[in-house]
User: Fold this.
Amino acid sequence: MGDARLLRVALAVTDAEFGGAALADLVTDLLDTMQAANGAGIAAPQIGVDRRVVIFGGGGRNPRYPDAPEIAFTVLCNPWLEPLGDERVAGWEGCLSVPGLRGEVPRFARLRYGGRDAQGVPFERVVDGFHARVVQHECDHLDGVLYPRRIEDMTRFGFTELVLPAVSA
Ligand code: NI
Assistant:
């Protein structure tokens, strides 16, 4: 947070880039970074790459989110999101770009999302709960939005060690 590259609206992956080595290398870099930090997901702008690519899930249970259900490893390029209903739920989020902090963020409870995988194959899913939250958080990164901007009650924002002592970051 504070790096201008996190505030850009990222560029779409082009048809020529799908299935290519550069995109495969980007996914590898994202995966290495996410795993090293025990992240639930990560977006290309977080490693300084101006592309609409996010990855999330995989690796079983996440020690940073021990109560969260498992999500299959997903590479999502040029995503779109469609909320299903108006219901929003508040939940605690952290971010690899905002180290040491957690905040309570309202997100749509249920949504349809889709995009393309690294080969350019389109897919879509209907999800809710933690999966829906992760997708919304990661896709926000592609539009230059970090979760603190989504916090509505700033008393629910603070350092991880004080807010959630059972979770160490
Ligand atoms: Ni993040």
In short: DSSP finds three helices and eight strands in the chain. The radius of gyration is 15 Å.
